[in-house]
Amino acid sequence: MEISPIYHNSRPEGELPAQETAAFDFLDSLGIDYERVTHELADTMEKCDDVSAVLGVDVCKNLFLCNRQKTSFYLLCMPPHKAFHTKDLSHQIGSARLSFAPEEQLWELLHCTPGSATILGLMNDEENRVQLLIDKETYEAEFFSCHPCLCTSTIKLNTSDVKNVLLPKVHHKPIIVEL
After folding, report:
1. Spatial contact of 37 and 4, defined as CB atoms under 8 Å apart
2. Whose CA is closest to 130, among 174, 168, 68?
3. Pair 116, 147: CB distance under 8 Å
4. Are strands 130-135 and 61-66 parallel, antiparallel or unpaired?
5. In the beta sheet, which residues pair with residue 35?
6. Phi first, then psi: what are they for 54, rounded to 5°?
7. Cβ(75)–Cβ(122) under 8 Å?
8. In a 3-state reduction of DSSP, which class is residue 61?
9. Residue 110 near residue 104, CB atoms below 8 Å
10. Sign of the C-alpha dihedral computed for residues 18, 106, 128 and 169 taken in this order
């Protein structure tokens, strides 16, 4: 996979899709520092391994989930090497029958496409319909890496900025889980 050099506080050049422009505008408005690389479509964790090597931090695995009735939605942020077991997570959050949410809901609630679900998409969840779940290991890591609402770029953030600046601004308090 071809990956750009690392850029500091610099969005990709040229015209960007609206959701990616919004993500970079949001980061800039909050004054959050970030490092960024641009690359081919990285919509699987295997493809993100190459990106992780360049950024020097694991790209977070982000899963967009829902209950069986599709009335409760969750964004789970976890380390890429951990396995996801629905039963374990369901027990911790008190929600039975979790599954992957439909693509339409991912777009409607977070303005993200499949493979690009991200914590930055919470800026679009103005009604707080999505509950943020973060694995303890990810929550306690020094850095947090994710896509800016499109999986052709990846950014690296200080986790302290995510906790203390980004999450309060989007009005989402995470539930810390242990997977």
Report:
1. yes
2. 174
3. yes
4. unpaired
5. 8, 156
6. -70, -45
7. yes
8. strand
9. no
10. negative
Using the predicted structure, report yes or no on whether residue 109 has a pLDDT greater than 90. Answer: yes
137-174, pLDDT tens digit by residue? 999 999 999 999 999 999 999 999 999 999 999 999 99
The mean per-residue pLDDT over the stretch 52-61 comes to 95
Average pLDDT, the chain: 94
Q: What is the pLDDT of residue 82?
A: 93
Q: What does DSSP say about strands 35-38 and 61-66: parallel, antiparallel, or unpaired?
A: unpaired
What is the C-alpha to C-alpha distance for residues 62 and 122, in angstroms, rounded to an integer? 12
In whole angstroms, give the CA distance from residue 118 to residue 136.
Answer: 17
Distance CA 105, CA 155 (A): 24
Place of tokens 């699987």: 44
pLDDT tens figures, 88-98: 899 899 887 89
> Among the residues of 31-176, which ranges form H helices?
45-55, 86-93, 103-110, 136-140, 159-161, 167-170
Q: Determine how many CB atoms are found less than 10 A away from the CB of residue 167.
A: 17
Whether the pLDDT of residue 41 is over 90: the answer is: no
Residue 22 in contact with residue 109, Cβ under 8 Å? Answer: no
